[in-house]
Amino acid sequence: MQHDSAFSFEGDWPAVEELLGSAEALDSLARETGALVRRRQIRDGSQVLRLALGYAATGQSLRSTAAWISSALGVTLSDVAVLQRLRDCGGLLSAVVGRLLSLSTQWAEPSALWHGPPIRLVDGSMFAGPGKRGGQHRLHASYDPVTGRFDVLSLTDVKVGETLSQARIEPGAIGVADRNYAKTKALRELADNRAFFLVRAGISSMKMIYDKTGERLTAQDVVAALGEAEAVEITVTLQEAKPKGKRASQRPEPLKTRIVIVRASEAVAARERARIERSRSKHGVTPREDTKAMAGLIMFATNLAAKDWPIERLILLYRLRWQIELAFKVLKSIFAMRVVPAKDPALARTWILANLAAALLANLLASALERTIPPSNDRTPSSEPL
C-alpha cells in the first residue's frame, strides 16, 4: 500500500481546496456533477474528492479504501457504500482534471528558446481492468514540449478511436502525431480551423491522389520519387469518402498536402523487415508488395509551408514525439497506473481520473511552493563564473 499522504494530500488539503477555487466551489461542483446527492456520512464535495484520491492511493480493494476513509476522515462506510460513491465520482474528477490542466497552462513559464507557433504532441494510451470483462478506457492526450506539460487529457471509452479531433488543437498550433492519426477527416478539420498538422503516414492510411499522375499514390510512386536521394517531398490531394446518402456535389473539397519521404536508417529498416517476417511466420500473413517496398522508408503528411518548414526542420519537429511517450511512462510508473484494479467500467474510470488529478495536483503544489520561496542570494565558490 502506498503512503496515504502521497495521494490524499492530508497536510496540504487547504491548498488543494484553494487551487480548485474554494471548499464551497468544490462542493457546488460535486453537486452539479452528481457526485454528491445526499449529505450523509460524506458531508461535502471536499470529502468526496478525498475519498476518490484515497481510492487511488490504496488501489487494491474497496475494503482498504473504507478502512482508509475511516482513519483519515472519521467516516464509516461499508464496501457497498464506498463502491456507489466512487462510481458516481467520474464527472467530478473529470471537471477537476480540466481545472488543474487550465491552471497548469496559466502557470507555465514562457520559453526563452522557442518563439514559434504552439506545438501539440498528440498520443493516446489504453487502460484496462483485470480479466476479459475489465473496463477498457482510452486516454487522449496533448502535450506541450515547450513547457513540458499536458494541456489536454480526455478519458473515453475504448471504442472512441485515436483522432486529432480529441486533442482540441487551437488555430495556429501544430499537431504532431504518429500514423494512427493519419485520418483525412480530422486533418481537414484542423486545416479548416487554421491549425497545422505533421503526422506519420502509411501508403494505405489515406486516399492520396498523386498530383503528378492524377491517380492514387502507390508504393512504386514513392520509391520512384525518392530514387537515390535521402529525402524528397511530393504533393498529393487527400480525398475523403463521400458521406452516405449525400450527392457527389456535397463531397468535401480535396485537401492539398505535402508528403515528405525519408529514407530510414539501416537499423530502422532492419527492424521493420523483421516485423514483417514475424507477422508472416507467426500469423501466416503474406506481406503485400507495397509493404515490402516501403520497409526502409518513412512518410510524413503536413500542411506546413515548405518555405518555413523544409524537410530537415520537419524531421526535427517529429522527433519531439518521444516526449509525450516518456510523459506517459512517467505517469504510469510514478502513480502505478499500469494495471487498473477495477473490473467495473465506472469504477475504473474513477480510479484513472483520480490518479490523473493526483499527478496534476502534486505538480501544481510543487510549483506553488517554488513561487513562495525567494531565490537564494548565497553563492558558493563553485557557482562563480570561470
Provide a brief overview of the structure.
This protein has about 375 residues and is α+β, with helices and mostly antiparallel strands. The protein is built from 14 helices and nine strands. The chain is elongated and about 75 Å long.
Order of helices and strands: HHHHHHHEEEEHEEHEEHHEHHH
User: What is the count of β-strands?
Assistant: 9
- How would a crystallographer describe the biggest sheet? 9 strands, mixed
Number of helical segments with 4 or more residues: 14
Termini distance? 49 Å
From the 3D structure, determine the CATH topology of the largest domain.
Answer: Transposase Inhibitor Protein From Tn5, Chain A, domain 1
CATH class of the largest domain: Alpha Beta
Descriptive report:
It is a single chain. It contains 14 helices and 9 strands. With 386 residues, it is α+β, with helices and mostly antiparallel strands. A 9-stranded mixed beta sheet has the order 3-2-1-4-5-9-8-7-6, sandwiched between helices. The chain folds into 2 domains: 4-93 and 344-370, no CATH class; 94-328, Alpha-Beta Complex (Transposase Inhibitor Protein From Tn5, Chain A, domain 1), CATH 3.90.350. α7 (90-107) packs parallel to α14 (345-372). Mean pLDDT is 84; it is low at 1-7 and 376-386. The two termini are 49 Å apart.
